[in-house]
TrEMBL record:
InterPro entries: N_methyl_site, PilW
Keyword Nucleus (UniProt): no
Protein name (database record): PilW family protein
Any Pfam family the entry gives: PilW
Coiled-coil zones: none
Record field: transmembrane: 12-33
Keyword tRNA processing in record: no
Organism of this sequence: Alteromonas arenosi
Length: 288
């Protein structure tokens, strides 16, 4: 009588198979988790880099024109004494609190406490403010604009004013209530220093900065024959998404104390020095 042997897995073989399966599954899960963490990290770094490059380029394109006033521009609106206005703009490329009777608090401000963000204000002749508003002028008109840049919470914002309104020469128009527009979210800190030229200190008429100072020292520097010819800006931006970092990094923006924003996000520091080409030419021409 023939008997058939039934083949199969022993209990030991099954246990070994299950153990190997668990090891392989664990390895796959670990790879997936690592890939997910790496992906979040890469996206956070990329977003911080992109945000930083954007805001640096945006601020550079605006600030570089501070102090510009072209009396020969055919599109310049001449409803006021433009010669007197040109002198005011060129002598106040960076307005300070008290320069405008209508808004006496408007001007470049150093953060009141250590680590607080600064306020940057610039004057220039252009065809629209930093929000894109023509402020009641015709589309091709050039006029006196004052732009303010400041940090509101974690949002870097700007708002523009008609300089003639600020000086009490005309009513405000087309300003949307002077509402501020957001330029960039997730900004941790916004710091500004001002490069001051002084031929008495430099010993020449090169209009090169001899010192970089905060806004609360500008009044004294200008009274001592100085003039702002450059602006140095530092920005600390936060990347998208939450990423756990093993050790919290510290950042030093310009002349400020170190900042330690935390270990739950990626932060990137950006700094740029912007030469005010119109002010350099103005300072050289005055020295001739």
């Amino acid at each position: 009588m023939n008997t058939r042997r039934t083949s199969g897995f022993t209990l030991i073989e099954i246990m070994i198979t299950l153990a190997l399966g668990l090891l392989i599954s664990g390895a796959i899960i670990q790879v997936m988790v690592s890939n997910s963490v790496a992906d979040r990290l890469n996206r956070a770094i990329a977003s911080a880099q992109e945000s930083g490059r954007f805001i640096v380029n945006r601020l550079r394109s605006d600030v570089i024109m501070a102090g510009r006033y072209d009396l020969l521009d055919g599109n310049l609106n001449r409803a006021v004494d433009v010669v007197e206005e040109a002198a005011f703009v060129q002598n106040h490329p960076i307005p300070l609190p008290g320069d405008f009777a209508v808004r006496p608090v408007l001007g470049a401000i150093e953060g009141p406490n250590t680590g607080d963000s600064d306020v940057l204000v610039i004057s220039l002749q252009t065809d629209r403010d930093c929000r894109g508003y023509t402020l009641g002028y015709n589309n091709n008109d050039q006029f006196y604009v004052v732009n303010e840049y400041f940090l509101d919470g974690s949002q870097l914002k700007c708002r523009g004013f008609d300089g003639r309104y600020l000086r009490g020469q005309k009513p405000a128009a087309g300003h949307n209530g002077h509402a501020a527009f957001t330029l960039l979210d997730d900004v941790e800190s916004f710091q500004v220093l001002y490069g001051v030229a002084n031929p008495l200190i430099a010993g020449d008429d090169s209009a090169r900065p001899v010192q970089y100072i905060p806004a609360d020292q500008l009044l004294g520097a200008i009274a001592a024959n100085g003039q702002v010819v450059a602006v140095r800006i530092g920005v600390l931006v936060k990347g998208d998404g939450q990423v756990k970092i093993s050790q919290s990094a510290s950042f030093v923006l310009l002349n400020e104390d170190p900042i330690s924003p935390g270990s739950d996000h990626i932060y990137k520091q950006f700094e740029v020095t912007i030469a005010l080409r119109n002010m350099k030419n103005f300072v050289r021409s005055v020295s001739l």
